[in-house]
Amino acid sequence: MLSKTSYKTPVGILYLIADEQILLAAGFTSFSELTKRLSPLDASRKSETVGQIPVISDLIADYFNGETSALNSIKVRQSGPAFSQSVWKEMRKVPVGKTWSYAELAKRAGSASAVRAVGSACANNLVAPIIPCHRIVKSGGALGNYAYGEEVKEWLLRHEGALQ
């Protein structure tokens, strides 16, 4: 059975869906929006709403309370093509307080010319902000797009010390 919970943050409610200690989805939309994007197998599973998900809820709280490296300890799983998987894996290596460009991430994921594919992987990331697509910016330094809005992206980057 999947567990669902939400956490009130300074930038809105963060919805979480987990399979025991593995986070399958996180985002600032709704449970129904996140569930639609789960793998067909996970989307078909029964779920229950809980007050908190052991370990994961505590790490989310720690992050929003200032321990910005806490998200690194959350185990995640999401389905997607092989290149997206490599992009998400590399994205988790972006240090807190830093940003990488889409081009830098493409290079680190194994295909320097795949900048558009990196953008697609960011857009399809189902575990934000734990897989920190908010730390990926345009080559000129502009923030770029973020599924939950530029204000949320900017707040997260300020919270982590990447923006003054």
TrEMBL record:
The record's keywords, sorted A to Z, are:
DNA damage, DNA repair, Methyltransferase, Transferase
Report a single Gene Ontology molecular function.
methylated-DNA-[protein]-cysteine S-methyltransferase activity
Extract the InterPro entries matched here: MethylDNA_cys_MeTrfase_AS, MethylDNA_cys_MeTrfase_DNA-bd, MethylDNA_cys_MeTrfase_DNAb, WH-like_DNA-bd_sf
Pfam families referenced in this protein's UniProt entry, alphabetically:
DNA_binding_1
Mind telling me which PROSITE patterns this protein's record contains? MGMT
Which ranges carry the Methylated-DNA-[protein]-cysteine S-methyltransferase DNA binding domain?
Answer: 82-162
For this protein, what is the EC number? Answer: 2.1.1.63
The highest taxon in the source lineage is Bacteria
Q: Which reaction does it catalyse?
A: a 6-O-methyl-2'-deoxyguanosine in DNA + L-cysteinyl-[protein] = S-methyl-L-cysteinyl-[protein] + a 2'-deoxyguanosine in DNA; a 4-O-methyl-thymidine in DNA + L-cysteinyl-[protein] = a thymidine in DNA + S-methyl-L-cysteinyl-[protein]
Q: Which biological processes are named by the entry's GO terms? A: DNA repair; methylation
Q: Does the keyword DNA repair apply?
A: yes
List the NCBIfam families hit by this protein, alphabetically.
Answer: ogt (TIGR00589)
Give the family per the record: Belongs to the MGMT family.
**This chain belongs to which protein, by name?**
methylated-DNA--[protein]-cysteine S-methyltransferase
Organism listed in the record: Candidatus Nanopelagicus abundans
Kindly list the organism's lineage.
Answer: Bacteria, Bacillati, Actinomycetota, Actinomycetes, Candidatus Nanopelagicales
